Amino acid sequence: AAGTQGKDGANVGAFAETYVTSNGTNGADGNPGQGGGGGASCGTFDPASKYLTSTTVLSSHSVWYGPGGASGGAGGCAGTGGTAGTGGGASVSLLVIDGAMRIQSCELIASPGGAGGEGKGGGSGTVGGRGANGFWSSAGNGAAGGRGGDGGRGGHGGGGPSIALVYRGGLPTLVATAMTPGAGGDSKGKVGLSAQTYQVK
């Protein structure tokens, strides 16, 4: 079976004194292919070769040998999981951490957020091995092994946010102040957040 896909990053990462991007997670490896079944043992008795293919014919003076079926092929190798994409960088006009502040007659303008990186596709599983041939003409051949599962795609990085004011604690007092965020960063997963304000929990 194929590996599960990685998770995409969120539309905003984590704020503290710095910003931590919202990265995707790696895809999971696929599962190895199932080994092929063994071939059936012989089904008839051949006096000329003295090979026995059923349990109903036995000699009181000699031992006859019945060849078993051939072994099945090995299962294919699994594909490796894809690498996750990195989240885009944030654009923040003002970051306030646990501080009382009055902002008056200002304009807080944020640039567009950075683009999130694309998660990589997982590796392909390989084809299973060929089963062995039966030792005798009436002994069954082994079945081929199953194909290994493909690795899961890595998750896409979240687009970087664009926020005019990010704060933790109380919201600063805003007087005659305009806040203009830019566009959230692009991503094949989640586009970055675009907001005037964002409270860090």
List the helices and strands and how they pair.
Elements: E1 14-15, E2 19-20, E3 91-97, E4 102-104, E5 107-109, E6 162-168, E7 173-175, E8 178-180, E9 194-199
Parallel strand pairs: 3-6, 4-7, 5-8, 6-9
Antiparallel strand pairs: 1-2
Shape field = rod-shaped
What is the H/E string?
Answer: EEEEEEEEE
Average pLDDT level: 88
Number of helices: 0
Roughly how many Å apart are the termini? 40 Å
- The structural class is mainly beta
Query: Could you name the ranges where pLDDT drops below 50 across 5 or more consecutive residues?
Result: 53-58
Largest sheet: 3 strands, parallel
> Proportion of β residues?
15-25%
Q: What Rg do the Cα atoms give?
A: 33 Å
Structure characterization notes:
With 201 residues, the chain is mainly β. Helices cover 0% and strands 18% of the residues. The protein has strands spanning 14-15, 19-20, 91-97, 102-104, 107-109, 162-168, 173-175, 178-180, 194-199. The strands form 4 sheets. A 3-stranded parallel β-sheet has the order 3-6-9, with no helix packed on it. Strands 1-2 form a two-stranded antiparallel ribbon. The chain is rod-shaped.
